[in-house]
Amino acid sequence: MKAWVLILPRLLYFVAKQTVFPMFTFVFILLSVFSPTQALDSGYFYFGNTNVIGVGLLSEGEKTGEWKVYSKINPDPDPRNSLQKADPKIFYKGFNQQFPLFILHFENGIPNGPFLENFPNGKPKVIAYQKDGEFEGEFGEFYETGELRLTGQVLNGKKEGDWKEYSESGRLISLMTFRQGLADGKGLGYHPDGGLQWEGNFKNGELDGSFAYYLPDSTLKLKGQYADGIPVGEWTEKLEILPGFYRKGAYQNGFKVGEWQLTNLEGEFLQAEYYQEGKLLSIGDFKTPNPIQNKGKIKKGNGQRYFYDAEGNILARGKIVKGKVNGLWYFYFPESDRVSASGKLQGSDRVGTWYYYTYSGEVKEQVQYQMKKETYKSKGYSKTGTHMNEFRNYSLDNNRFSHVQGLVNNTTHYVY
User: Fold this and answer.
1) I need a labelling partner for 293 at 20 to 30 A (CA). Which of 82, 215, 336, 344 fits?
2) Per-residue confidence (pLDDT) for residue 42, from 0 to 100
3) H or E element in which residue 244 lies
4) Do 274 and 283 meet the contact criterion of CB atoms below 8 Å apart?
5) Which band of pLDDT confidence, cut at 50, 70 and 90, is reported for residue 111?
6) Is 10 exposed, middle or buried (0-12, 13-18, 19+ CB in 10 A)?
7) Measuring CA to CA, how many Å separate 275 from each of 183, 230, 314, 323, 374?
8) Are 6 and 33 in contact (CB under 8 A)?
9) 332 near 315, Cβ under 8 Å?
């Protein structure tokens, strides 16, 4: 029995599941399954480096028809860049011929037609279409389970219109609008349970305009304005090292400046903070309904800071160095002077060994925390070092299209 007779029902079933691209996927299958069989010895070329070899037909010295790109069984850790002809003996001896990494189509040496990238086990990873060497039309990326991960339109090789990213369970993760390859317009991000995580506006690929970020319980984490990817104007931020507090103030050129106000969740003023170029220089007295002896003192960016509850009970205390949280901190059980946890804070990150105590003062647990990479520059403002690192990190998947496009561009040309 012909091989295509055996696999066609499974392929059509896959098409039926991926309703986002039914017509395109069907065309891809027709071209791949019913195109004339190509002899494997027609042409062998390295596709970018010596760990991958493409196999297909040549017509008058140009790639034509379907080409399949295979990976090396034992890839070299440092492969040599190459687009040269490959020895068929090397291909048959050392390359995985069961599942191609890529299947693409050429006309006169230029990629034109359906494009398929596979997982190592042969399951589809990216389904797209190419025109004159660039992606065009529908673009879809999939999880290894077959669930849709990323989908959108491509125009002249660049993202255009709405792009959607999904979790493996099928929930929407983000919705971004693009113009000529750059994020432009409103963007939305969602928590795994479907709740809104962030909402913002983009212009020329950067956050520009109002922005808000929410915690999984829908509590506001931060809210303010961006201009060309830099926070500006009035902002409200939830205190990261201790629950129950917000701070409100202004950004200038991406840095906290002037007086900021520490408040409780109800917005009641508790303490003044004074910043210069993003560094905390000093603080005012901590306000509570009942007078307290405020022990917190910061001078020229160095000192000790204390936090209290509404009754004046200590909640936390620790070191401020050069305008940043940096050093040993203690956290307390509610309405007591008993330490619940202690260890080093660097910004909002716990580093080194932290001790967690019972109410009677015994150590119940020790946890070792790794130091995280610094997310801010000591001099100057970095767009990649804002309080939006979480958003920036996971949204990189929404830019994988650019990675695939570049990968294809680096592997579709050859020389003799």
Assistant:
1) 344
2) 76
3) none
4) yes
5) very high
6) exposed
7) 32, 17, 24, 8, 20
8) no
9) yes
Element (H, E) at 393: helix 389-395
Task: Please give the model's pTM, rounded to 2 decimal places.
Answer: 0.78
Express each pLDDT in 287-335 by its tens digit. Answer: 988 877 878 999 999 999 999 999 999 999 999 999 999 999 999 999 9
Distance of alpha carbon 171 from alpha carbon 193, whole angstroms: 8
Instruction: Give CB contacts under 8 A, 24+ apart, made by 273-280.
Output: 273/247, 273/249, 275/249, 275/323, 276/323, 278/254, 278/323, 278/376, 278/381, 279/322, 279/323, 279/324, 280/256, 280/320, 280/323, 280/324
Give CA–CA dist 400/260, Å, rounded: 39
DSSP state of 85: B
Give the model confidence (pLDDT) of 253-288 as tens digits. Answer: 999 999 999 999 999 999 999 999 999 999 999 998
Taking alpha carbons only, the member of 287, 286, 288, 327 closest to residue 304 is: 327
Neighbours of 301 (CB within 10 A): 16
What pLDDT sits at residue 178?
94
**What is the band of 401 on the pLDDT scale with cuts at 50, 70, 90?**
low
